[in-house]
Amino acid sequence: MRILIIPLAALALAACDSGRSGADPEPAEKVAAAAPTPPVRPGPAMAIPPVLHGRWGMAAADCEPGRAAEGLLTIGANRLEFYESVGTLDDIREVRDDRIHATFDFTGEGMEWEREMALELQETGDALVRREYGADAAPGSFRYSKCN
Questions:
Q1: Which CATH number do you get for residue 104?
Q2: pLDDT at site 39
Q3: What would the pLDDT profile of 15-46 be if each residue is shown by its tens digit?
Q4: Which residues span the domain enclosing 91?
Q5: Which residues touch 40 (CB under 8 Å, ≥6 apart)?
Q6: What pLDDT digit, counting tens, does each position of 97-135 carry?
Q7: Is residue 32 part of a domain?
Q8: What count of Cα atoms within 13 Å lies in the side-chain half-sphere of residue 73?
Q9: What does the alpha-carbon distance between residue 86 and residue 105 come to, in Å, rounded to a whole number?
């Protein structure tokens, strides 16, 4: 008989709780604690580090002025410009003086997509390495040299 009383008591409590009206909101502390932490959005102080800004080429010919170079990457405060696409800084995962790991919103060739990537200086600032992350990421890394 004791086994039957415990499940019935639990059902009775559940029935009482399900009858609560919407006029009885939970305390603000509980709601705030349950809310997910918003992603970090870039602002004036949160941008691509200035040492990464500029023109970067995968080959020396990519840096030639006036040339339509597929291996050219131009980095600004909040955007990346490739040959046929532009990525705008969205969520920042990590940022240091010489590195950023972030998500970028891309547009190009009539399409839109999101890409997580890291950009990092190497060799005293003369080289830049770009890595992509996620399901559609390109494998390996891409190495660029600073254009003069």
A1: 2.40.128
A2: 53
A3: 444 444 444 445 454 444 455 555 555 454 56
A4: 50-146
A5: 46, 91, 92, 93
A6: 999 999 999 999 999 999 999 999 998 889 999 999 999
A7: no
A8: 20
A9: 8
Whether 27 is in a domain gets the answer no
State the pTM of this model.
0.69
Nearby residues of 69 by Cβ (< 8 Å), 6 or more positions away: 57, 61, 62, 63, 83
DSSP readout, 5-40? HHHHHHHHHHHHHHT--TTSPPPHHHHHHHSPPPPP
Quick check: is 44 in a domain?
Answer: no
* Structural domain contains residue 58: yes
Mean pLDDT of the chain: 80
pLDDT of residue 58: 97
Integer Cα distance of 61 and 23 in angstroms: 68
Average pLDDT over residues 76-82: 97
Number of compact structural domains in the chain: 1
Residues in the chain: 148
Q: How far from chain centre, in Å, is Cα 32? A: 24
Report the C-alpha gap between 8 and 12 in whole angstroms.
Answer: 6
